[in-house]
Amino acid sequence: MAKTTRTVARKPRAQPKLRAARKVDPVVTEIVRNGVIAVTEEMKTNLMRTAYNIIIYEALDFTTGLFTPRGETISIGIGLPMFIRGMAETVKAKIKHFGAGNIRPGDIYVTNDSYLTGSHLNHVTLTLPIFHKGRLVAFSCCMAHWLDIGGILGGMSTDIFSEGLQIPILKYQDRGAVNATVVDIIRQNVRLPSRAMGDLRAQVTAVKTGERRFLELIERYGRDAVLNSIAAIMDHAEAMARARTRTIPDGVYEAESYMDDDGIDIGQKVPIRVRVVVAGDEMTVDLSEVSKQVRGFYNSGVTTGHACAQVAYKCLTSPTDYPINDGSFRSLKTIVPLGRVVSAVRPAPMRWWMTYPMTIVDTIFKALAPAIPGRVIAGHHADLLASTFHGINNRTSEFFIGSFGPLGGGWGAKMMEDGVSGTVCINDGDTHNSPNEQAEFKFPIVVERYALVPDSGGAGRRRGGLGVERVVRARTNIVVNNQSERAHCRPWGLNGGLDGTGNAVELRIGGQWKSDFPNAKVLVAQLKPGDAFKIRSGGGGGYGNPIERPIEQVRDDVRQGYVTVKSAAELYGVVLDPQTFEVDAAATEKLRAARRSGDGAAADAKSA
Fold it and tell me: Do residues 146 and 196 touch, judged by C-beta distance below 8 A?
């Protein structure tokens, strides 16, 4: 894999004119700042407490938000960071569809249009307009993952029509009256209607919570005070993002990586190339050279292309600034031509939409590594590693669809820190993995092993985080689908750090493990009772020369099981007693000296 970066100097641009100062009470503004965060957090809590499916109330595969009457983000309760653009564009599309004059109190709008939300059909979005004394003041919105939306269960889909029920922009509720026809159509097209209807009602609860609490905020502090404070908060977020962008040297930065394949043309790499332009207080992310949309189901809509840039920009310029709002992105420009894997057009399949975007974010960080080495990370495992399985529960004789939440993996090391281990990929942000015990209770499976993988993190002065391995045994006949990526495009190291291990899948059939798959995609695997599947996430890339890692840190890594004795010698040049873990100082110095002089390839722990 090429790891190229090109830098071209540019002159700083003139500073933009400041926005007109707003007359706001700073105390009220801070109360409103925390108030809108509290509203979206309560929306999250109520959704989790009333949802029917584990993917919502445990994995947190959803996002809630408040938006201005024009569809600008006021605050979002993060579950999936990639929803940040999709939700806002969905709100704007609903405004355009119905017309501002036709939006009424008591309305709730619904859609799961993949080419609008940017994601798959499982993500259903509800939007409720908030009125105060007859004036539209905001929108309350919730996008959540439904376990089933119809369509095929396993295998590779090649168009959107095979992936389930497509819901255009419709009124779920019209001035307080529920549209029974819409409900009946949804119920008729899903395999588990009681679960779907339960999650639908939970989302209604979430958006009504947003309405109630936002109106309470207005009643307490006044409509103009709240709305002006929100505008001031956005202006402040813009100013902070611009100030931090100015700390990045002007230039043009490029990098590339790739995806293993699209699940159809096995072994044919899917190129990922990004171009980042920094000029003064503005950044442009150009995704024109990202691969064109593919035949397999790894595409996503154009709002996800823009979200890739927004997620990366937020991490680089204002990772701890809250609430997350549109002001933070006024200084970001994005170029995302239609027809790419993150801007696919109909009828491209979208079922596994979330995989490619996180590698694009990773590659943006890689492009900027030479400019801001202290603010980026090496590559991470960049995949959900979320296998799905279905069958008939032998205890209840009922059909089931099961999955685990995202399997954590290794994140890349930083200049001053080791990478974190067993952490969910960047696309899924605040989502959680699923408790093994809960999955075992709900589904006829047994988790035999769930552990960190030694030596999976890339070696470096700062070590990459470790991947995770989960082994799941079937207790009945089940069909397993695993759609993982980055088996071959391993998480890259930076500044001399080594790559982490890639993602992997194995099957145990009749007591024998099969691991010689061409990638990490195993679809429609038939397992009998006693058979098992193993999912192993990759480790993060390392940062800096491994020989420069302090000897005591290497020894601690070995004692904790993160690095084996063999790898300590081969990769870090540290010789340890395998029983006591005591350092052989003379052998270590000799081995490290050989590595520094360039003879390290011929040296090993034994000869040292």
Answer: yes
